[in-house]
Amino acid sequence: MVKTTVYLEPDTALGLRHLAGVKKRSQAELIREAVRSYVSENRVRPPNHWGQFESKGGDVASRRKEILAEIYLERAGRRSKNDGADRG
Question: Is 56 strand, coil or helix?
Answer without folding.
Answer: coil
